[in-house]
Amino acid sequence: MKHSNSPPKKRSLKDLLRFFFGFKRYPPYIENRLREADVRSCMFLSAVVGMVEIGMIIRSVIKFVIIEGKIQSAASFLSYTFDFWYLLAGSAVLCFYCLMYLRKRLRNLEKYSKLLIFLYFAFSMLFGIRTSVNDFSHGRMITCFLTIMMFVTVICVWRPVSSLLLTLVYGAGFVWILNHYSFDSDGNPLRMNSADLLNYITFIIVIVILEMAVFIQRYSDATKSYRLDQKSQTDELTGIPNMRKFDADAKQYAAKCAAENKTPFYLVFDILNFHTFNDRFGYEGGDDLLIQTGQRIAAAFPDEPAARESGDCFCVLTTADDFLARAEKIRDWIRAAYPEETYLNVRLGAFRSEQADRSARFAVDRARYAVKQIKTGEQFFSEYDAKMSSEYSMKQYVLNNVERAVKAGHIKVYYQPVVRSDDGTVCGCEALARWIDPEKGFMSPGVFVPVLEEGRQIHKLDLCIYEQVCRGIRECLDSGKPALPVSLNFSRLDFELMDAVGELEKLVQQYDIPKEYLHVEITESALTNDVDGLKKAIGVLHEKGYLVWLDDFGAGYSSLNVLKDFQFDLLKLDMEFLRGFHDNKNARKIVETIIALADKLDMKTLAEGVETEEVARFLREAGCGRQQGYFYGKPMPYEEILAKLGDGSFRLAAGIPEE
Predict the structure, then answer these.
(1) Torsion of CA 420, 425, 426, 428, to 10 degrees
(2) Fewer CB within 10 Å of terminal CB in the chain, N or C?
(3) Per-residue pLDDT averaged across 384-404, rounded?
């Protein structure tokens, strides 16, 4: 949205005079700051005046009632102290109003604040005039009026011309009243002599200067605060609003749309492959792309909230029917500006906001989620729908409840048996996580594992699995039940987010588990990051006596460098190879070659995803030492494995655990 609220610029004498006398229209932010400054001054000064009046009332009681006994009745006392009481009451009312205003309890009455301040000013000055006329008639100084004027004029500085007029009117009026309504004890009229008048005029001039100084200081503070506020609401790089400003603008815009019976869309623009562009052109080139993109998005939606959300993402709130066409022009501009960078593109996600009171962050998160659902390079636009809503809700549920699920025992270990190819006996198993939730029921790993990886919380789940496996092995060893070696999955994030080796060692020591009962599976994709760190970790695992397996070999773009650079004890073939087994002769040849290569590298082999007798026979003939898959058994609680070993459905391999 366009914002033109900027501090006044004093360029000419006319502008300077308009500023000093308060005829300049200030931005709403500065106007509010000046009003708040007046209210704060009022609260402080009314509290001081109120305490002074309480002191004067107490003094009157002590002197005229208790000591001298001049006042005998309550009516006489109230009559004598009437001025004190009404000024005390006015101070109390104004102080209470100011306190509530600053606590944002009475903001609906803010238009009356100046009126209340003026009334308090008027009553206070009236008190000062009455008291000082009486003092002047008895030959005393007019200190009361001068003090009251000095107090109250400082709180009436929201516009300098107002302060100036009030000061001059009351100042001249006071002199006129003194000269016409002051009499000595003999009834002779009194007048202010020329020397006192000169001093009085000097005092009025000082008051005016003080008022101007207070106003200028307040205006300067308000302007500085305004600039800081504007800076805090502007993206430092692109110059367009940031999310703080967007939140505020979106709230007002949504309310306006509701009043006009319009349904706005929250849009999120995501620059695809921006990091690649940044690596190619450096930070300066990347910043230039972000600046131009941000400015073009703001220009494409000139009267609607637009902001840089984060990184290479921008968001817009719009009711424009042609928002998709406008967005496509932005994409076309990027393609035209960088024709050689064919990888560079823009994706657009949208969320239709049916509720005016929905927070901008809520809506933007869902539009961003819609962007992430765009999987192909040709697809440009995705709108958040019911299916995405269900997926997003599940994602949030997983992230918000994983710790609770771990503590409550909703995360269970299921074990899938691993068999020897030559005789079909069970020689181990793989530990797999299952989430059995009291609200969602049985949750598939395909639902919660990717979410926890994306949310960088997968280590909490994995650590829970490690602990349950170690506890289970200890229970079997103590009870004399068959204890199978178990392979544990370690992802890249496990090594990033925790001391994976250290945590495993703690559990092994806690439950006193022989190392041959635990195998560490590391996915091939984990080896593409922090190669040196993972090499060191694998070396430490070997030193401590663990067998380390390479998991999912063949998934994605496998590299023989992995086999060259890392030392593994077993290579686990990904099930993708076996899915093309029946119709693809190359799949057979590749599997045979990998098995032979692993044998030459002194690695054992295990194929997962075995589902048919034909595949099992081929792997056995090809020399694959171990197999795993639904053909032999689905993942199950360990109790079921024990039951199958007991009833003969499974046969326990000889010589386990293997050294």
Answers:
(1) -30
(2) C
(3) 91
Query: Are 144 and 53 a contacting pair, CB within 8 Å?
Result: no
How sure is the predictor about 456, in pLDDT bands with cuts at 50, 70 and 90? very high
Name the phi and psi angles at 490, rounded to 5: -120, 120
Work out the number of other CB atoms within 10 angstroms of the CB of residue 571.
25
Regarding pTM above 0.85, the answer is no
Kindly list the distances between the CA atom of residue 366 and the CA atoms of 313, 371, 388, 446, 615, in Å, as whole numbers in the listed order. 13, 9, 9, 21, 44
The last residue of one of the domains, among 176, 202, 232, is 232
Provide, rounded to the nearest whole percent, the portion of the chain with pLDDT above 70: 89
Residue holding tokens 């000062």? Answer: 128
Separation of alpha carbons 413 and 638, rounded Å? 8
CATH of the domain at 586: 3.20.20.450
Residue type, 267: L
Domain of residue 311 covers 243-384
Mean pLDDT across the stretch 476-504? 93
The residues with which 308 forms a beta bridge, in sequence order, are: 314
Cβ count within 10 A of residue 279: 12
CATH number of the CATH domain containing 318: 3.30.70.270
- Six-digit token string for 653: 């391999």
Cβ(125)–Cβ(149) below 8 Å: yes
Measured between alpha carbons, how far apart are the two ends of the chain, in Å?
Answer: 70
